[in-house]
Amino acid sequence: MPFYVSPEQQMKDKADYARKGIARGRSVVVLQYDDGILFVADNPSRALHKISEIYDRIAFAAVGKYNEFENLRLGGVRYADVNGYQYDRRDVTARGLANLYAQSLGTIFTETNKPYEVELVVAEVGDSAETDQIYRLTFDGSVADEHGYVAMGGQADAVAEVLKERYREGASLAEALKVAVRALEAQDADRHLEAKSLEVAVLDRNREHRLFKALPAARIERLLNEADGASSSASENGANGANGESED
Length: 248
What we know:
There is one protein chain. The chain is of the alpha+beta class. The protein is 43% helix and 23% strand. The chain contains 6 helices and 10 strands; from the N terminus they run αββββααββββααββα. The protein has a 5-stranded antiparallel beta sheet. α2 crosses α3 and α4 runs antiparallel to α5. The radius of gyration is 20 Å and the shape is globular. It starts with 6 loop residues before the first helix and ends in a 6-residue tail after the last helix. It is found in: Cytoplasm. Keywords: Cytoplasm, Hydrolase, Proteasome. It comes from Actinomadura rugatobispora. GO terms for molecular function: hydrolase activity.
């Protein structure tokens, strides 16, 4: 006799399966800073990237099964290239890509036995922070328009809690990177992330032509040291103020 499962139970089982798969990996953080959008992944691999460029002003970040989100990334690149060539480069937008991914993920989730174990962010940097676009897509094709910061994958709730406490609008690149790293370290007690364990990239609105740039480990290390130096100076100034010291 055929085994019957209600549609509601089938959808719930698929969702639980996808969530567990996504939670097994490490988190990715996407957040706005004063000159653009920052992407930070807990990813020591130099070959398997979680962050990549899609088009002129658009980047992609993902967590979950690499082969699945890599298929989606390649599909997005093809979509962007074809539409930019046939129409106009300005017609390729993060919103259009988010809609494409939402349709693909929704179809896979409802029509196949195994859903994709992925979560995505598609981001487009604008001429100002107010015109930046960040879209978060889940395994079932749901889309959320995000502002400020996004945490996905791994222990995302713990990471998001740190971001909520420490993130501020208009932060410098060094400050935003430091906040992102501290948030990623919240996945494990006593975890310390070094530059070589991070995959970092930016969409910098001040660059010309290609606005996407992946940051090498040496640059990541300098930015983290810069943020530590700024924090130390702020602490010293606060202590001097508390002691009533002043310069005449």
